[in-house]
């Protein structure tokens, strides 16, 4: 049991170190995937489009760097900027969303990439604290399993 807990502890430790070392690559990868999701955004509401809409609604952002990123997409030529970028759903018409100068007043202008990374970095201390607590419990479990094993081994010879 102690060996199994030790193996799990080492796997979590390696994952944390790899995540810390490659955090810049993770950001770059996220940014490129967000750009791909914008490019392939469509009305049929596939899971990537739903994810983009959810991010934009939740974080009050639009596009990758800013709202003008939508102008480079095929979706913009057909329908304009998505409604998930609108500050107020009632005050956002399709004509406004097709005109970038009018849309600037009706949609969130900040990009989602910066806000997502800012949110992730602000929550990183909470994740680190929870991970540290779990690691402490695992270490306590490893120590107690070793103590129990030692106790059983010592008492086995006394019974005879």
From TrEMBL:
- Bilayer-crossing regions: 126-152
Keyword presence, Iron = no
Q: Source organism's superkingdom? A: Eukaryota
Q: Which UniProt keywords apply?
A: Glycoprotein, Membrane, Signal, Transmembrane, Transmembrane helix
Checking InterPro entries in the record gives: Tetraspanin/Peripherin, Tetraspanin_EC2_sf, TSN6/7_LEL
Keyword Chloroplast among record annotations: no
Signal peptide (residue range)? 1-19
Q: GO cellular component annotations, sorted alphabetically?
A: plasma membrane
Query: What broad class describes the main subcellular location of this protein?
Result: membrane
Q: What's this protein's function?
A: May be involved in cell proliferation and cell motility.
Instruction: List the protein's name.
Output: Tetraspanin-7
